[in-house]
Each structure stands twice: as structure tokens, then as C-alpha cells.
Amino acid sequence: MNELETSIQPSVPPLGKIIVRDLFTAGRVPLLLLITLFFSAIAVVMTTQMTRDVISQKDQALEQRETLDEEWRNLILEENALSEHSRVQKIATSELDMTRPDSDKEVIVKL
């Protein structure tokens, strides 16, 4: 009877083959939706990362702009300080008739 029972039992097809066959026949639409969902999720992650990178670059550019703006203000102050000396010299020569002494008339004082 053992031989008869084994020949009567139906053969069980592999489950993996059935699932794959069903995915490509009856489940095409859900499979396409699943693939589309996967690529959409990857695109969202990549877009988020690129946005973070751009925001980081923007912050660095703003910091650099602030540094350059501070340097520019310091250069303006330095320019004003240097131009003030020439203004004093110009006023001294034009309004007060002052002149630079000759080198033989200069007196060096040692401390």
C-alpha cells in the first residue's frame, strides 16, 4: 500500500515558482506599482539629500559674505584714516603755509 499511496498523492508544485508566475501574470499592476513606489522613495531620499547639501553651501556662502563684508568695512575705515593724513597735510600747506623742513634744518632729539 505504501507504493499505492505515494503514487496517489498529488505532487506539490514549488511555492516560489507559483508566486513569481502569479506576479508576472495576474499581479502585473501591483508589481508595477511596487516598483514605481520603490523608485519614488529613492528619488525622495536623493532630493532631500541634495536639498541639504545646497542649504549647507548657502550657509557657507552667507558666512563668507559676512566675513568679506567685515573685511570691506575695515578697509573703508583704513582708507578713511589714511586719507585723513593727506587732508591734514593739504590743509597745513594751503591754509597755514606750512612746509616740510629741509634735511639740513632737521634736528634729531635723542631720548
TrEMBL record:
Organism superkingdom = Bacteria
Protein family: Belongs to the FtsL family.
The answer to whether UniProt assigns keyword Membrane to this entry is yes
What is the source species?
A: Vibrio halioticoli NBRC 102217
Task: Name the InterPro entries on file.
Answer: Cell_div_FtsL
What are the protein's UniProt keywords?
Cell cycle, Cell division, Cell inner membrane, Cell membrane, Membrane, Transmembrane, Transmembrane helix
GO annotation, biological process: FtsZ-dependent cytokinesis
Q: What is this protein called?
A: Cell division protein FtsL
- Which Pfam families does this chain map to? FtsL
- The coding gene here is ftsL
On whether Metal-binding is a keyword of this UniProt record, the answer is no
